[in-house]
Amino acid sequence: NAGVMQNPRHLVRRRGQEARLRCSPMKGHSHVYWYRQLPEEGLKFMVYLQKENIIDESGMPKERFSAEFPKEGPSILRIQQVVRGDSAAYFCASSRGTSGGRQETQYFGPGTRLLVL
Amino acid sequence: DQQVKQNSPSLSVQEGRISILNCDYTNSMFDYFLWYKKYPAEGPTFLISISSIKDKNEDGRFTVFLNKSAKHLSLHIVPSQPGDSAVYFCAAIRRGNNQFYFGTGTSLTVIP
Hints:
The complex is a heterodimer. Chain A is mostly beta strands. Helices cover 0% and strands 51% of the residues of chain A. In chain A, strands 2, 4, 5, 6, 9, 12 and 13 form a seven-stranded mixed sheet that branches. In chain A, strands 1-3-8-7 form a four-stranded antiparallel sheet, with no helix packed on it. By secondary structure, chain B is mainly β. In chain B, the strands form two sheets. In chain B, strands 2, 4, 5, 9, 10 and 11 form a six-stranded mixed sheet that branches. In chain B, strands 1-3-8-7-6 form a five-stranded antiparallel sheet, with no helix packed on it. In chain B, a hairpin with a 6-residue loop joins strand 4 and strand 5. Chain B is globular and about 45 Å long. The chains are: A mainly beta, B mainly beta. Chains A and B meet through strand 5, strand 11 and strand 12 of A and strand 4, strand 5 and strand 10 of B.
């Protein structure tokens, strides 16, 4: 019973390049969340997706960042024209969704550590 | 704005003693709270949760206490073990809202 999988685990990019982070949710989970953790900070919500739908992207920067969760395949967090400030750990979590109007427990992947040179 | 706060960035405890990790929140609409544990280079792992209709939830060595009037929750680990050394995050959610709000974490070190 595989957990949430993320790849790559480490990613190095130069300023101006694109970064693509992948997340495969746990089996049976159709809801995916992306979080960013900057050094010395907690986890900050970025975006919540279901298959083929963005449900809530209120935590995502308006420019350069995008996310998708296609019908087939993993969820992708894409950062265009990366800058040094994008260096962080990016965590993906998945859940079964909501129950009784409340979000179900989220289970996290190991994270992708992005370093922008 | 940080709606969930963990004011102690670190805590050291002797093996066998009790570890108490604290968390405060500002939004009275939060009605469900969770604790996650994170080892270096790994993702957070769900540990224990509590609904706002309860004031205590226990699971083995881990107990979470909720004081709604003070908007405060705490995680007690007893007895503490060296393998408990990790960063602990508290999180809060509320009905009808998609986000988990996380604190900044407390790094626990259990000294053998």
